[in-house]
Amino acid sequence: MERCSICQKEINRYVGATWLKLGKKDIKICHICNMNLGILQSANEAGTNPDPSVVEYFESIKNISLDPELSAYFRPYLDKEERERLAQEEAERKELEQKHKEAEANMICTTGFQVDGYRIRKYCGLVGGEAVLGTGFVSEFAASVSDTFGKRSGMFEEKMRMVKLEAQMEMRRQAAQTGANAIIGVSYQIATFAANMIGVSVNGTAVVIETLPEEVR
């Protein structure tokens, strides 16, 4: 006779069961425990308080407190202080991500080594980004036709713009993570690979710049 590894109730053909990954092993749990666990996990992912009745359901199961592995598994869901700590960490992570996104969007990029009206306050190190994109058979064929008639290949040009932009976005992300607000000395390197692949590498120096005082502009 099989029993649910959480609530210890009998599992039979009338009570569905599923498997739960617990550490390095898989345990069988009943349908009710699985359903309530899903509610806990959804609330945890959303950063909201779980349904009190679901918390009460698991808190009433003595086996959870007796089994060290089960106790450790349920602690983030049932321990109020632990939930609050995890929620605080998630809020801080989202806030940091938002700051990085804003820094990326406002990042000044230049191929020069200074920015007019600003001075460099801090060097944050080298940053870079790489991107590889396939041109595809259609683009290759269109390019060959354009080459035959001496015309520009719009499909190739669009692919090149895309891959350069992707590489630059990766460089901006790296710079934002260092706390920089500008990248100087930006340079691009382009390479072609087999199977119609184009690679772009972009590099620069991440810096923190500040506005020059009026008297020295």
CATH domain fold name of the largest domain: Translation Initiation Factor IF3
Name the shape in a single word.
Answer: elongated
Find the structural class using helix and strand composition.
Answer: alpha+beta
CATH C-level category of the largest domain: Alpha Beta
pLDDT < 50 runs, ≥5 residues: 137-151
Description of the molecule:
By secondary structure, this protein is of the alpha+beta class. The protein folds into two domains: 17-78, no CATH class; 102-216, Hypothetical protein apc22750. Chain B (Translation Initiation Factor IF3, 2-Layer Sandwich). The chain has helices at residues 31-46, 52-59, 62-66, 68-78, 80-106, 136-148, 154-177; strands at residues 2-3, 10-11, 17-22, 25-30, 108-109, 118-134, 182-193, 197-211. The radius of gyration is 28 Å and the shape is elongated. Mean pLDDT is 83; it is low at 137-151.
Give the structure's gist in a few sentences:
The protein has 217 residues and is α+β, with helices and mostly antiparallel strands. It is built from 7 helices and 8 strands, in the order E-E-E-E-H-H-H-H-H-E-E-H-H-E-E. The chain is elongated and about 80 Å long.
